Protein 1
Amino acid sequence: MTSDKQALPLYQGKVLPEWIDYNGHMNVAFYVLAFDKGTDALLEQLGMDEAYREREQCSVFTLEGHVNYLRELRLGEPFALTLQLLDYDAKRVHYFQHMYHAEQGFLAATTELIILHMDMRQRRSSPMPATVQAKLAALWEQQKTLPKPVQAGSVIGIRKK
């Protein structure tokens, strides 16, 4: 796993049988599912858990996401997710997750996401509560000196020789 002590641990899991595809490894859709569990863990740490969503009638929508598949994970293999905050404002959070093999330590996949805070009654974006913004500010202070991940901001395409 990463030697970077400033990355925020998010979630740990194992590759389940139903996640395996015809190639004998974790299907692309389930990487997204695993990263979504990481997003849920982030929201809980920020105080935007299920109780918050019910009480405030607010949630988040994903605006954009990119996944890089770097090494395969196979049945039963453990993985761990970490988070790096890249940017945020009153309504949006831009972050990066690393998925590591939890025992062998190699980087299996990454995702870069932007989420938007939503008022579910209005179905419109709305500012996050001050308490959430304060937690994001504290996380930013902790992580602002981290180098930008190699895959962050990547563009898809075939490189011509």
Protein 2
Amino acid sequence: MIKRTQIETIKNSLKHFPIVGILGSRQVGKTTLAKELLKRHKNVIYLDLELTSDVNKLQAPEIYLQQHKNEMVIIDEIQRLPELFPLLRALVDQNKNNGQFLVLGSASPALIKKLSESLAGRIIYHELTPFIISEINNKNNQIKKLWLRGGYPKSFLAPNDLISAQWREAFIKTHLERDIPQLNINTSSITLRRFLTMVAHNHASLWNTSNIARSLGVSAPSVKRYLDIFTDTFIVRQLQPYFINIKKRLIKSPKVYIRDTGLLHALLNIYDLEKLQAHTIIGASWEGFIIEQLINIAPEHWESYFYRTNSGAEIDLLFLTNNLEPVAIEIKYSLSPKISKGFWQATEDIKCKKKFILYPGQESYKIKNDVEILSVNDFDKIFY
């Protein structure tokens, strides 16, 4: 079993907050992590709101939860019963104990936080992502395996690439045919599959709503709604552009990424490293893989953007630190990375002192103008 890096942080939160939330995509390991966290707790109640039998237990939720006030209660898929949130507030205010409830959700943080506004000051959230590089054993091409298969546990840990590919295809099918309709989205799974495949083909590119709408044969508002649906369910990342007060013509559209490269490759029918190496998506795929890794391990409150001007100045990933210091990152899929003129220009535009080039090699080293070339094993140098 792969130990998740967040487990100690979540344990600590249970000591200091009455309610702890773990958010993340379906099948990412939230339930497994929750049960691992609570192995040492003797009195635990687990409720899965996808099971009719468990939902029935909550027909009179106040009575049921009061009966278990001395036990920790795990509520899985909490977004399915949003009316529980005000009740949880009343219960934790009455009992005054930390670690009373552990709630798991597969809707977006924005949606869950909106539903749980009444719990302000009583709940802390953690997002559980697919496996990241620091969680796997970097031997025998494990990073390449993570890149190819993605980090969903059943995909990454599958006995071979074929089984992994079959799992990812089943995951996509279930997400389109079951999970999204449960969010009261009345769009055919065929249309959503076509849309998601278009996102995959535009991975790491500027998003053009009008072009996608025209290709799909639907309205621009429909395309925006589809994109938001997949963003809210942790499938797509919209990386926003960074704006500063300079006299430049800046790009204003977001860049889009399929967050898990295993799902990206499944949508593009890429199921082994040989096919990935030969595919035109390889550079964009690597860029998205690295960006997702970095955002997932960045310190809390660091903000992530990209930067691009119409004249060609560009930064693949731009972090703003807690003190608003910009950190510029360029991502190259090359063992001999060459820094583009656009990167130099962009870092001059926004006065970046910290500049990094990330590449798939093994050695990290510094070059001119305080730029550091980093291997995937030295990501943490960015954050200190």
